[in-house]
């Protein structure tokens, strides 16, 4: 049982860490890089990123961040030694913030960008960009901080798990 707990915890750390890195990369590289583009090219860039990001690398990390953390929490809780449970619970709540923020805020904005169609045919690309960009960046920061907090809680859970040996 301890091995299964450890494997779930390691899978949680990996998936949450990948998500924290992705959101951090968007914060310090991708969005500042796109910011210099004119409105039509900004929309085209975001549309292209949104198409290619849903892939075999992103989805396992994104879904795994919640699923593996929930599994680690359940395994730890039912194993009887609950010394790690508070840290995994904190990590799970923060992973949920990241997951729900993405699904409820960023994805709908991505869908709006996609629904706008060909950027060259959008009547007012500046208005579309203005209605999305700042909110998208702010929520990317929220989900990035949540993922980083989750990663830190999981890292500490690994320390506590190791000390319980």
Structure description:
85% of the residues lie in helices and 0% in strands. It contains 5 helices and no strands. Helix 1 (2-35) packs antiparallel against helix 3 (58-79) and helix 4 runs antiparallel to helix 5. It is an all-alpha fold. The mean pLDDT is 95. It has helices at 2-35, 39-53, 58-79, 85-115, 125-163. The chain is elongated.
Q: What is the 3D form?
A: elongated
Largest sheet: none
Helix/strand-derived category reads mainly alpha
The helical percent reads: over 70%
Tell me the strand percentage band: under 5%
Low-confidence parts lasting 5 or more residues at pLDDT below 50?
Answer: none
N- to C-terminal distance: 13 Å
How many distinct beta strands? Answer: 0
- What is the number of independent domains? 1
Q: What is the H/E string?
A: HHHHH
Radius of gyration from the alpha-carbon trace, in angstroms: 18 Å
Count of individual helical segments: 5
- What number is the mean pLDDT? 95
Can you tag this structure with a few keywords?
5 helices, 165 residues, 85% helix, 0% strand
In short:
With 165 residues, this protein is mainly alpha-helical. The chain contains 5 helices and no strands. It has one domain.
Write the layout of secondary structure elements.
Elements lengths: L1 H34 L3 H15 L4 H22 L5 H31 L9 H39 L2
Helix pairs in contact: 1-3, 1-5, 2-5, 3-4, 4-5
